[in-house]
Amino acid sequence: MKKVAVVMGSRSDMPVMESCLKTLREFGVPFDVKVLSAHRTIDEVISFCEKAEEEYEVIIAAAGYAAHLGGVIAAKTTLPVIGVPLDASPLKGIDSLLSIVQMPGGIPVATVTIGKAGAKNAAVLAVEIMAIKYPELREKLKSYREEMKKKVLEG
Ligand SMILES: Nc1c(C(=O)O)ncn1[C@@H]1O[C@H](COP(=O)(O)O)[C@@H](O)[C@H]1O
């Protein structure tokens, strides 16, 4: 199984992105974490993208403020990119949400909700994408849903 790349714009994004990493661990999906910024380390983002297809099946890109990271990565690879908007600025993540979701036609970034729930959903969506190829992940997704259902019904 190739890995998921979890890329974030700054180390300061890590506390929120922990819920993404925790969920990937729960599904037993291998991943790498990278701190890279389209604004601050553009050359490193480009070299990461140039090699990404050898190692990764899905890329998760999380960033706050003007979150160009996911869009730039999506522009440089044909792997599916999931963008996680983060509440890091006085605009509380709306800035990040709009800059991730409003990609022009042809270069999509699959966008999840702002913050911790989005970080978790990015991991689940990555697993769903990988489950197309790895049937054991589909079984794990079914058990995950069952567990969730049980928790709701048991209160
Ligand atoms: N949006 C981006 C990008 C980018 O899009 O390339 N690089 C860093 N950032 C974001 O800037 C915020 C503040 O970063 P610092 O805390 O390092 O100042 C972080 O949420 C990061 O994701």
Automatic annotation (TrEMBL):
Any idea where the PurE domain is? 2-152
Q: For this protein, what is the EC number?
A: 5.4.99.18
Quote the record's binding site residues for substrate. Answer: S10, D13, R40
Name the Pfam families on file. AIRC
Query: Which Gene Ontology molecular function entries are recorded, alphabetically?
Result: 5-(carboxyamino)imidazole ribonucleotide mutase activity
What is this enzyme's catalytic activity, as reactions?
5-carboxyamino-1-(5-phospho-D-ribosyl)imidazole + H(+) = 5-amino-1-(5-phospho-D-ribosyl)imidazole-4-carboxylate
Source domain of life = Bacteria
Q: Which UniProt keywords apply?
A: Isomerase, Purine biosynthesis
Q: In which pathway does it act?
A: Purine metabolism; IMP biosynthesis via de novo pathway; 5-amino-1-(5-phospho-D-ribosyl)imidazole-4-carboxylate from 5-amino-1-(5-phospho-D-ribosyl)imidazole (N5-CAIR route): step 2/2
Which GO biological-process labels does this protein carry? 'de novo' IMP biosynthetic process
Instruction: List, alphabetically, the NCBIfam families matched.
Output: purE (TIGR01162)
Question: To which protein family does this belong?
Answer: Belongs to the AIR carboxylase family. Class I subfamily.
Q: What does this protein do?
A: Catalyzes the conversion of N5-carboxyaminoimidazole ribonucleotide (N5-CAIR) to 4-carboxy-5-aminoimidazole ribonucleotide (CAIR).
The protein's matches in HAMAP family, at most eight in alphabetical order, are given as: PurE_classI (MF_01929)
Q: What is this protein called?
A: N5-carboxyaminoimidazole ribonucleotide mutase
Organism of origin is Balnearium lithotrophicum
Underlying gene: purE
